[in-house]
């Protein structure tokens, strides 16, 4: 299987949750600082929004004259409980830490005057900082915008795609910002949103959300039962030959729990993992 990574029976890889190294910590902190800089020193003082919970926080801060960092935290925390419980406590703690770090840095930057009062420059630089910062935080398992995260939960109840839901929510936020700050600022807000989106995509290049796992050998019946118990029944089964091999798709956050599960239930099994950009059967996209 192209791009597969053999993991097999390697005891050192199954000693528990993997530690977060210094590169991940640096990425995490740099992302939080960039998000706070983009929001507090570029977008907020120029009455620009880039959609999502950050946009709502900027508008509420403008209306109430309270610090934006407080709204960032209060708006995003409830969405931690909306997230898929199969992600586990470790992921929840990383996400909570991301929210706390971003909100704290934003509060610290509140007294600092804006770096520019030119709306076009603020929209470009603010969107760039916001998108790159969000990408750095997302790469280590955190999240910075609960509104977008909630789209994955709402998708179960409506016929719209996740991209359509996110776009609908962000357009609504930009429309409200237009009434609040004026339509000229709304145009610059659209520029900030576009640049933030493109810089996020660039920062996340090579980062995968899904993983195709091929398991060969071992007690596959026991493995499948354990997978349903630990991961739930939400993962699609691509192929299955009873007693021979099993191929499933899991999320990136489920990789470590699955490794621990395989160590306990099928230590002799041969396992290959392939990163995917899409989990749909008709459009698998393998990362090179």
From TrEMBL:
Coiled coil: none annotated. Pfam families: YitT_membrane. It is found in: Cell membrane. This is YitT family protein. Keywords: Cell membrane, Membrane, Transmembrane, Transmembrane helix. Its main location: membrane. InterPro entries: UPF0750_membrane, YitT. The chain crosses the membrane at residues 20-43, 55-81, 93-112, 118-138, 158-180, 186-204. It comes from Paenibacillus hodogayensis. It is a multi-pass membrane protein. The lineage of its organism: Bacteria, Bacillati, Bacillota, Bacilli, Bacillales.
